Amino acid sequence: MKYSILLFFICISSWVSAQENQTDSIPQTVIDTVREVRDIEEIEMYAKKFVPRRASLYAAILPGAGQIYNRKYWKLPLVYGGFIALGLTVDFYNGLYQQYRSDIFGFLEDPNYSSSTGANLDRTRTLADNARRDRDFWIAMTGIFYLLQIADAHIDAHLKEFELNPNLQISFEPSVDPTYFAGYVQGFSSGISIKLKF
User: Fold this and answer.
1) What's the structural domain count of the chain?
2) Which UniProt keywords apply (predicted)?
3) What are phi and psi of 191, to 5 degrees?
């Protein structure tokens, strides 16, 4: 009896097959869709690390901190170089204005005063007004540059998602399709079309 049961199981085992792999029955398009959804979720999770408001706040508190937050370290020399150049320009025109102003006070105290530029009182007043106007202009440019670096940090944080998306690539696959057109006025014409796939 024992041997007959053993023989029975041996015979049955040759006809029985193991479980089939479940992924073989799933169409390839479903598998690709699941992979794309996972990729998109990873991109969105990574893009959420860069909050535009936080980048703007950091850039407003300390110029260049928004660029550091966005991991755009190469922009730091541009930000600080711009502020240094604008600050030196403001300092230069402020120095000229202070010099011309002291010359004006010198003329008012002593009519025989000799200015550093060799100009008279009216010409010195004109030079002082021009230097003050230029100084104020470059102070305004410094403020605009400050706002631009905040806007750069904000926009760069918004665009982080687009940098990470692998589907945003251009591929040049020319497919030359001959085109024929028979028009009433032009007659028979031909051409080719080149298609770009994004």
Assistant:
1) 1
2) Signal
3) -170, 180
Mean pLDDT for all residues in the chain: 77
Rounded CA separation 32/34 (Å): 5
Residue 106: inside a domain, yes or no? yes
Gyration radius from the chain CA atoms: 38
Domain that holds residue 153: 51-164
For residue range 133-146, what is the model confidence (pLDDT) as tens digits?
Answer: 999 999 999 999 99
Contact 85, 145 (CB under 8 A): no
Alpha helices in the chain (DSSP H): 2-15, 22-25, 28-47, 52-61, 65-69, 76-109, 121-158, 160-164
Cβ atoms of 98 and 63 closer than 8 Å: no
